[in-house]
Design brief:
7 strands; Chitinase A, domain 3; alpha+beta; 271 residues; extended; 2 domains; five-stranded antiparallel beta sheet; two-stranded antiparallel sheet
């Protein structure tokens, strides 16, 4: 007898998921390169930290653990236990997670904190920032018409955003793109944005191969090496250093006893 759909809704059974099932799913979802890269990164960090004598102190673990719990809104002990259970983590795993985060940050600071100022001044233009709003249109003639209408005071940019932005979240935000550094803009857009004589102002429509951008420049922020940017630069330099270390490493994967895989540059370039 064949069960109907309604009958099957009431059927319940335990599903057993093994470690090999998880590995197979990671393989079939093409996540092996990114997982390998994450594992390799952690091993490289641990080895480099050991060679340099970098240690994680108890007070640093406590502070980082508190920050992590706050980030995930783990206010009560019950919240923490439920979160650990969801992610199949033990308390020892949690402590290792916290330890890895602190160790990575300390190694990055040790390697690159002394190079930040030099890097910043060599790349200063890339760290100019702009606060912008944008509307993307398919028709350049329409974009020009709207541009001149804003200049003549016939319509506001906010009104254009409400009328021509299809994404609900972006429409409610008026096309707000937030603060972005120069290097985060496409080159053909960065040039006119940072050439703006004054802000706030609307830019003449910028056309690319497929679209036309109508951009309101709210504010241009001159580059300044504050603490937030300092940490951003350290993180970027550390990331590129890690990529170099991974590329220079020979990595052998053995997912099971019968299936050893050796993956070097070719596999990691896919990550």
């Amino acid at each position: 007898m064949i069960s109907t759909a309604s009958e099957s809704k009431h059927m319940s059974q335990n599903l057993t998921i093994s470690a090999s099932d998880i590995i197979q799913n990671i393989k079939l979802s093409c996540q092996i390169p990114s997982v390998v890269q994450a594992i390799a990164s952690q091993k490289i960090i641990a080895q480099a930290a050991q060679e340099l004598g970098i240690r994680v102190e108890d007070n640093e673990l406590q502070q980082e653990g508190d920050s992590l719990r706050m980030a995930y809104k783990l206010v009560k002990a019950k919240d923490t236990w439920n979160w650990l259970k969801t992610h199949e983590l033990s308390m020892d795993d949690f402590e290792q997670l916290v330890h890895n985060r602190v160790l990575s940050r300390k190694l990055a600071s040790h390697l690159f904190s002394g190079e930040v100022e030099k890097f910043f001044y060599q790349n200063k233009l890339n760290y100019a920032g702009a606060v912008t709003y944008e509307v993307v249109l398919e028709n350049r003639d329409l974009a020009l018409e709207l541009f001149y209408a804003v200049q003549e005071g016939e319509i506001t940019f906010a009104e254009i955003a409400r009328q021509y932005i299809h994404d609900p979240e972006q429409r409610r935000a008026g096309g707000y793109q937030g603060l972005r550094y120069r290097k985060e803009f496409r080159p053909e857009i960065a040039a006119p944005v940072f050439a703006a004589a004054s802000a706030p102002q609307i830019l003449k429509p910028i056309s690319t191969a497929k679209e036309t951008y109508l951009i309101w420049v709210e504010e241009i922020i001159q580059p300044e090496l504050n603490e937030q940017l300092r940490q951003k630069i350290i993180t970027e330099m550390f990331y590129y250093w890690l990529q170099q270390q991974i590329q220079a490493s020979g990595i052998v994967m053995q997912l099971d006893c019968d299936n050893p895989l050796q993956a070097q540059d070719k596999l990691l370039k896919q990550a």
